[in-house]
């Protein structure tokens, strides 16, 4: 996004959360006030908060999670749940936000889970929305998945490929052999007529000289008598 009027003020408020003194309620409150000041630019505000949080050191990400929660609360209190834009906007990239929270220190993970559980209880996000964002473990009683899954080994990949090949061969063996019934029906040519065109027109050709001679005769007979003859 291009620079805007409140960018520098907001940047200073957000950077104050990334300090070595740990999470500070006063700094979170100050950052919330700065964000709400520019609530009409909520898209820019959300973009700025998310970018800072995702790139922040892992020990500072809990503070930004608290900021997101405080900002949603303040917006819903001021505008009402129906007119609050922040919850919906933060929900668009919840997957990345929760992924960033998986890296927080172990003593911060329970606090992160409490925030997500509170979102569900207050109806900020439904359980389905949280699960679709990859946050099912944030709602459970077990530990958070760190997300550090090692890539599968070559042996594992080879084993999976062998299993797929065996399934394919078994499917081919179990498939019934093709029969004539599986073949598409042949198209039969329509039956030929008993008489072709030339044979049917032969009698007419033999009558043509007779009809021509009759017409020439009628031309020499007076008009009222000519009606007695066939014309064509």
From TrEMBL:
<protein>
    <recommendedName>
        <fullName>CID domain-containing protein</fullName>
    </recommendedName>
</protein>
<feature type="domain" description="CID">
    <location>
        <begin position="9"/>
        <end position="135"/>
    </location>
</feature>
<dbReference type="InterPro" id="IPR008942">
    <property type="entry name" value="ENTH_VHS"/>
</dbReference>
<feature type="compositionally biased region" description="Low complexity">
    <location>
        <begin position="158"/>
        <end position="174"/>
    </location>
</feature>
<dbReference type="Pfam" id="PF04818">
    <property type="entry name" value="CID"/>
</dbReference>
<dbReference type="InterPro" id="IPR006569">
    <property type="entry name" value="CID_dom"/>
</dbReference>
<feature type="region of interest" description="Disordered">
    <location>
        <begin position="136"/>
        <end position="193"/>
    </location>
</feature>
<feature type="compositionally biased region" description="Basic and acidic residues">
    <location>
        <begin position="146"/>
        <end position="157"/>
    </location>
</feature>
<feature type="compositionally biased region" description="Basic and acidic residues">
    <location>
        <begin position="179"/>
        <end position="193"/>
    </location>
</feature>
């Amino acid at each position: 996004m291009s620079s805007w009027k409140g960018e520098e003020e907001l940047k200073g408020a957000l950077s104050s959360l990334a300090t070595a003194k740990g999470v500070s309620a006063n700094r979170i409150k100050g950052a919330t006030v700065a964000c709400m000041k520019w609530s009409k630019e909520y898209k820019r505000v959300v973009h700025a908060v998310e970018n800072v949080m995702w790139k922040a050191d892992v020990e500072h990400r809990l503070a930004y999670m608290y900021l997101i929660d405080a900002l949603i609360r303040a917006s819903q209190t001021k505008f009402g749940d129906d007119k609050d834009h922040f919850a919906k906007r933060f929900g668009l990239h919840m997957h990345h936000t929760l992924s960033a929270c998986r890296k927080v220190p172990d003593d911060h993970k329970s606090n992160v889970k409490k925030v997500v559980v509170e979102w569900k209880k207050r109806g900020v996000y439904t359980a389905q929305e949280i699960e679709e964002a990859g946050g099912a473990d944030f709602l459970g009683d077990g530990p958070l998945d760190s997300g550090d899954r090692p890539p599968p080994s070559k042996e594992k990949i080879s084993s999976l490929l062998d299993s797929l090949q065996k399934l394919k061969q078994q499917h081919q063996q179990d498939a019934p052999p093709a029969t004539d019934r599986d073949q598409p029906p042949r198209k039969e040519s329509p039956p030929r007529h008993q008489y072709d065109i030339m044979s049917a027109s032969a009698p007419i050709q033999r009558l043509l000289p007779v009809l021509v001679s009759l017409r020439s005769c009628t031309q020499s007979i007076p008009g009222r008598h000519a009606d007695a003859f066939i014309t064509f």
